Amino acid sequence: QVQLEESGGGSVQAGGSLRLSCEFSGRTFSAYRMGWFRQAPGKEREFVAGVDWSDYVTYNEHSVKGRFTVDRDNNKNSVSLQMNALNPEDTAVYYCAATKSLGHMYSPGTYDYWGQGTQVTVYS
Question: Using one digit for the tens of pLDDT, what is the confidence trace for 76-120?
């Protein structure tokens, strides 16, 4: 059974940075595509970024706009999300997700496993 544990959330002033990490365990990490999602109160879960088996990365360009960087480390069984130039609209719970599916990485339904989430709060 895959287990995912996010860390690195917190409160930061607008314009600041945070780095989220997701530790993967239970299966062979390199066999999974990894995604980051976020969910703000009263809103649907939103795709942020993803990385597949070959390190091909995908971003939600509409909301990320070059500010975020996703990276996986197969030696450490982890995936990170570097977030720069944060603004209050980035406030949400951020989730790490994993899948072996070939489905669209933008879709939450593609993913089989989810972490518990980590809160990111950006204040102005």
Answer: 999 999 999 999 999 999 999 999 999 999 999 999 999 999 999
Q: How far apart are CA 33 and CA 95, in angstroms?
A: 14
What was the pLDDT predicted at 42? Answer: 95
DSSP secondary structure string for all residues of 19-54? EEEEEEESS-GGG-EEEEEEE-TTS--EEEEEE-TT
pLDDT computed for residue 111 by the predictor:
97
Whether the Cβ atoms of residue 98 and residue 2 lie closer than 8 Å to each other:
yes
| Backbone phi and psi for residue 26, each to the nearest 5 degrees, phi listed first | 105, -25
CA–CA gap between residue 39 and residue 66 (Å, rounded):
19
How many angstroms separate the CA atoms of 58 and 56, rounded? Answer: 7
Cα three-residue angle 80-95-33, rounded to 5 degrees: 60
DSSP single-letter state for residue 27 = S
d(CA 25, CA 111): 16
* Tens digit of each residue's pLDDT (9 = 90 or more) over 44-76: 999 999 999 999 999 998 988 799 999 999 999
- CA 11 to CA 18: how far, in whole Å? 9
